[in-house]
Fold:
Amino acid sequence: MLTALLAITLTAAPGYDDGRLALEAQRVELARAWKKDKAGTRLAARQALLKYLDEVAFPSWSGTPWAFFGTTTTPREGTIACGYFVTTVLEQASFKLERVKLAQQASAYIVSTLARGTKVEWLKPKDSAAALASMRRAFPDAKLLVVGFDLHVGFVRLDADAARFCHASYLSPGVMTCEEPVAAGAFASSLYVVGDALNDAVLDDWVLGREVPSVLPKRSTPRG
Structure:
């Protein structure tokens, strides 16, 4: 069963629209297998999503201009704010979430929503290098973190020996980019709120097409 599930993820990387359709087809197939092999389905789902993000979503959005009020849903057309980048990428990857309402929250609420009741770390390291090291220690098996900063939010894509900070950057040149975290000015923060963006609970929501409930404050606070 596991071999068959993993085979679902081995498609070639298409363009953005075709990539979204291919990912949704993979999700439907995984949903059929979920009851019989939950662990194997989660593994295959995580691999499918990482492949899609690495080869389709992040490259397609790269270069899209940032703006504080940017809300575009089309890569490289219009502008995108950091919160909207996170929620739009996930919604267009077939996560059922409140894209607009969630994007307008302080970053900690975005992280808490995606954590789905799993661990959320609030880190106050001395510098960016220590922050990345602390994230790796706190989430040793995670491949995709969602990270909230003082006034920013983005993804940290982790491999064994490398990391990429994928975000709609408010710093020059002000575009969506994936860059080395420690060297990125936007990665510096006095506080980091961190969760595993592909934890088992949220993966189950994705596979089964369930809504991801938003964690919201009593009063919304827009962020760029």
User: Anything to note?
Assistant: The two ends are 44 Å apart (CA to CA).
